[in-house]
Amino acid sequence: MGHHSNTVSKCQNDSTNGLAAERNKVRSQSGCQGLQENNRPNWGAMDILEELQLLTAKTMEKIEVSKHYEIIRELGKGTYGRVDLAIHKTRGTKMALKFLRKKTTKQKSFLQEYCISRYLSSCPYIISMYDIAFETNEYYVFAQEYAVAGDLFDIIPPQVGLSEHTTKRCIYQVALALDYLHNRKLVHRDIKPENILIFDKECRKIKLSDFGMTRIAGTTEKRVSGTIPYTAPELCETSKHSGFLVEYSIDVWAFGVLLFCMMTGNFPWEKALHLDSFYYEFLQWQRYKSTTIPSQWRKFTPHALKMFSKLLSIEPEKRCAIKDVLWYFAKTWLVNKEEPPNADIKTNSDIFAHIKPQGLSLGGGSDNINSNKTETSPSLSFSSCSSYEDVAKDTNSNAILVSTAIEICV
What we know:
Main location: cytoplasm
Subcellular location: Cytoplasm
CATH class of the domain at 152-409: Mainly Alpha
Low-confidence stretches: 1-20, 22-42, 339-374, 382-410
Structural class: alpha+beta
Catalytic activity: L-seryl-[protein] + ATP = O-phospho-L-seryl-[protein] + ADP + H(+); L-threonyl-[protein] + ATP = O-phospho-L-threonyl-[protein] + ADP + H(+)
Protein name: Serine/threonine-protein kinase SBK1
Number of strands: 14
CATH superfamily of the domain at 152-409: Transferase(Phosphotransferase) domain 1
Number of helices: 9
Order of helices and strands: HHEHEEEHEEHEEEEEHEHHHEE
Shape: globular
Distance between the termini: 19 Å
Mean pLDDT: 79
GO molecular function: ATP binding; protein serine/threonine kinase activity
């Protein structure tokens, strides 16, 4: 984990230096006076993001999409707008264009999502961004890397789950993405399978995406935007009140629920509230360790259960950091040695991820793509998950698989 943290620091410096040059150029052209870089040596995420938003707002143009892009097909849509697969007519590059409807999206929200995404996109486990942001009469639009195999939700067999090997391969990359995010003082706030994009069905290359709800750690949000199985209990309870503090523990809880979903094909509960019988049973088990392990948790080994107890601690301050789960990758997680039908033809013994040497350099941007209770949990389906955004799934089955710099050795 140390290598990753050192790289994060390097990226932070690259990002700040590159941004300073762009910012000074814009300010000199516009006659805007500001603090020089040597007067603000300790830039934080808030400073950098504010400057990125300033720069983007000044340079964003209104264009006619059909003149610059060939729209191939729709990848998804929701209340926010839609995502289209497009080819840039000049560059010949395939990219995903995200259209955010002006009627429901403030320019500030658009700039925030785009700039956070761009700020983070040099990490190999976070979706890459093109330096493309513009507006039309109806939409704000930005361009990002196209994930050819869809998202993680598409490949989790309901009520079955993924193999332990595939789960570890995928969740390892998600953990590194979140650790990278948290090192930059940011909280994602919407961790779920739909926001983890995949580039092959075996999860050799995955990337975290969708930073529309991402906020600076320690800031206050006025309300909770919906309640889903990934929402931490303190937020489910907070929804009745006026606001809550954005903390890393929100992501840690969602990460734990995500891990359960990947390995079982079910949600552990529908809502983390006492009224939910599955959550209440889990709550009692965690508080009184002598009670019987709930049925849906019995397939996990003691090591896995210990990991879950750290990720899903009822008290937010007692949840572990994301990087703390990496120790458990050398342990077996499932009691049942029989793998699901779609499992890899490999063993589920100790697993280690080896990453080929590559820098996390943050170049300047332009083309940088790097309740009736039953014996099982709620099924993993859209109907049982009231998501923040209902997105139509892309069902293209002719996606081209691509290679990756990540190798999993077992």
